[in-house]
Amino acid sequence: MKTYLVPIDFSEAAINAAELAALLSKQSAVKRIILMNAFYISPYQELLPNPDMFMIREQEIEEEVAERIQGLEKLKIDLSAKVKEGVEIEVVLQRSHLIRAVVNTIASREVDLVILGSIGNTSANAKSLGKHVTGISKASAAPVLIVPPTFIPQPISTAVLASDFLKVKDTFPADALNRMFGDKNVDLLVVNIDAKGRYNFDEPEYTIELAALKDILKGYNASYFNITDRDVIAGVLNFAAANNAQMVVALPHKYSFLQSVLHSSVSRQLAASSVVPVLLLK
């Protein structure tokens, strides 16, 4: 991983995500951290008054832009003392919608990982996953690391990887996992999700798939477990807490235990329950 992108709306959660990005730089080969703020004013806001007969003037827009850039520069200074030596921190202000700004930056700057707070200034409350998270997670071509505001930035030494041991051969995103953890000394706790009690672990199919998974992860210090909780998310998060994991890794949603992670009800539960960052691989 060479480039992290951290969207900044100056909320506590966003600042916390930036702090984690700085700390993770010491565990990775990252060369650049981009702190980006998106500021969008529609042409109608500039030309027409709002219901309160207030019309935004160009001078006010310029002052707001300058203030935001100043805030990004201050954060850059704060983080410069916390990143690995040699890591470059850039500040960017995009005059566009947040999701479009993120997508464009990922494409133009070859971003490897987006790190963002689970809530922000647009969130209704601390237990709601910010709309920005849902939108970015859907649109991003890069993996997304969602950081709860209560998580205290710390090195990642243990991560829970939630999987389905019977869907390994054709679906496991080995390259994405290696880009994230290949240069880190991280213990992987690989959890099989069996909420419906489908598996007979003596069956050859299971044995073959598990052997294939172990071969894929042979470069890691990996351990393997089984979870049968009907409440899948609670089961995984409880397992992570019991094993002092600092991260939960969700495979691409079309075949992961969080296949409906972007569904609103599940997202709210995830945001409210998780006390550790959740990595959505792509």
UniProtKB/TrEMBL annotation:
InterPro entries: Rossmann-like_a/b/a_fold, Universal_stress_UspA, UspA
Domain of life per record: Bacteria
Pfam families: Usp
Domain UspA: 2-148, 218-282
UniProt family annotation: Belongs to the universal stress protein A family.
Stated name of the protein: Universal stress protein
Organism of provenance: Mucilaginibacter pallidiroseus
Lineage, uppermost ranks: Bacteria, Pseudomonadati, Bacteroidota, Sphingobacteriia, Sphingobacteriales
